[in-house]
Specification:
There is one protein chain. Helices cover about 60% and strands about 5% of the residues. The protein is built from 12 helices and 5 strands. The chain folds into 2 domains: about 10-155 and about 225-314, no CATH class; about 165-215, no CATH class. It starts with 5 loop residues before the first strand and ends with a helix. The strands form 2 sheets. The chain has a 3-stranded mixed sheet, with no helix packed on it. Strands 2-3 form a two-stranded antiparallel sheet. It is mostly helical.
Length: about 325
């Protein structure tokens, strides 16, 4: 007997009080990322890897979260993925509740914020950056897991046994596929009249899930792949380099950008493109090429004029 594919039916809410209001897993992912980032950075600071005093870590991580990740991530999404909307109405960048965050934009935002912070507080930019990048993959891991819970940024069509059918693919499906799905849904509940109704209904109706099993495409759960690559693998690499090797300030930041770029490019080979291709590359893969150059610049700067973390100056 061949088992059917899992039809994604997870709720984006940990706790919902009605009308789309409640405690969302995506928001919790950000909270968990910032909390883990604070804890890890504090450990590194207390162990002597950072020129930033432990008592200043909280303010620094808060600034990174607000101005680097959130502002940079939102602005990056509008510029890289939704330029036409942004150009028509730049104020739309402040509509955080509409969703849309870019990891590349968040990284660039963090680089800018960290540079400004280092100048204001008179701490070495490359040193605090090296410690910050060690914590970053944890946030990427939680973010990708939240993407899976939300059923967004799903993978390409596949026939692997662990494939998942994502109802949200109907938002981008051909009209005839959408009409078929709606027709099937109305046989169960005549009030289901939109793709949004189907996405919500799947979580509550086993009959609807059975109906859609023959309509939805089985796809790679690419969010999980990227959580493993950009999160777990990258964290283990950076943590090992930080705690086991004596590297000049800046080198670890460069390694982060280079390793993230290659892991992102690899992970996105399984992901359905969410923007037009550029030279046969997805938008995420294309932008990652520039991170390789940025990473190489950090490595070169660190090696050319080496400075060291406090632990290595003793």
């Amino acid at each position: 007997m061949i088992l059917g594919y899992y039809i994604h039916d997870l709720s984006p809410f940990l706790l919902e009080v009605g009308n789309g209001i409640g405690l969302r897993w995506y928001g919790l992912a950000y909270v968990a990322a910032f909390a883990a980032g604070y804890w890890l950075f504090m450990r590194l600071a207390r162990a002597g890897y950072s020129d930033l005093a432990p008592e200043r870590v909280g303010d620094f991580i808060t600034g990174v979260a607000l101005f680097g990740v959130i502002v940079g991530g939102r602005l990056g999404y509008m510029v890289f993925y939704d330029w036409h909307t942004f150009a028509a109405n730049p104020l739309v960048v402040f509509k955080f509740w509409d969703g849309g965050m870019s990891s590349h934009g968040g990284m660039l935002g963090i680089v800018v914020f960290t540079f400004v912070y280092s100048r204001m507080k008179r701490v070495p930019w490359l040193n605090i950056g090296d410690n910050l990048v060690v914590t970053a993959p944890v946030g990427l891991f939680f973010g990708r897991c939240a993407n899976f819970v939300n059923g967004e940024l799903y993978g390409r069509v596949t026939s692997v046994v662990w494939a998942v059918q994502f109802p949200k693919e109907l938002h981008d499906a051909p009209p005839e596929t959408v009409e078929l799905a709606l027709a099937e849904a109305r046989t169960i509940n005549p009030r289901w009249e939109s793709v949004g109704d189907i996405v919500d209904g799947v979580r509550l109706s086993p009959a609807l899930r059975d109906q859609l099993a023959g309509t939805l495409s089985p796809r790679h759960p690419s969010q999980i792949y990227e959580a493993f690559l950009e999160g777990a693998v990258l964290f283990l690499l950076l943590w090992t380099l930080r705690t086991r090797f004596r590297l000049p300030n800046g080198v670890l930041t460069g390694v982060f950008f280079i390793a993230y770029a290659f892991l992102r490019i690899a992970g996105e080979t399984f992901r359905e493109p969410d923007a037009p291709l550029t030279f046969a590359l997805t938008r995420g893969q294309f932008l990652s090429l520039f991170l390789i150059l940025l990473g190489a610049a950090f490595v070169a700067a660190g090696v050319r004029r080496p400075t060291w973390a406090p632990k290595f100056r003793r």
